[in-house]
Amino acid sequence: MTAVSQTDAFASAEGRPFPYFNRLWLNILALALADGIALSCAIGLGEWIRAWIRGEAMTMGWSWGIIPIWWLGAASMRMMPDWGIGPVEHLRRIVTLLTIIFGGVAAVLFLSKIGTMASRLTYTAIFLLSVLLVPLVRVWMKDELLRIRKWGVPVVVYGSD
Q1: What's 129-142 look like in SS3?
Q2: What predicted TM-score, i.e. pTM, was given to this entire model?
Q3: Other CB atoms within 10 A of residue 18 CB
Q4: Residue 135 to residue 140: CA distance in whole angstroms
């Protein structure tokens, strides 16, 4: 018997480095980018809706802090990447995390007494748009990764019948 080196243990049958870590980071970065785009669009559209309805813009600079908070929450809820999670569970986790984040922001605004500097209309619009856009953009990004064959990792299942 010959000893197997550690680099051989992480090589595929074709002799290339094991694709798991490359795929893992590619999928994480792609989903983070998709989430950032979806939340940025929700924030921009929410502020535009207020300007359209009320006739005056009210830019809420704190709302851009939602994006890094989302990334941390998504990582803690195992949604980066979300390999093996069904669509119903995936949607449940997205809505739960968005509700926690926006509920926390509402509590901070209320307790810090700066709620008068924030627009409830904009805040509600951003939340509703986020609940709509985040799942849609994530599905689109996953479809694009599937199309170029970069989503997930190859799996072999052994068994009988």
Answers
A1: HHHHHHHHHHHHHH
A2: 0.79
A3: 13
A4: 9
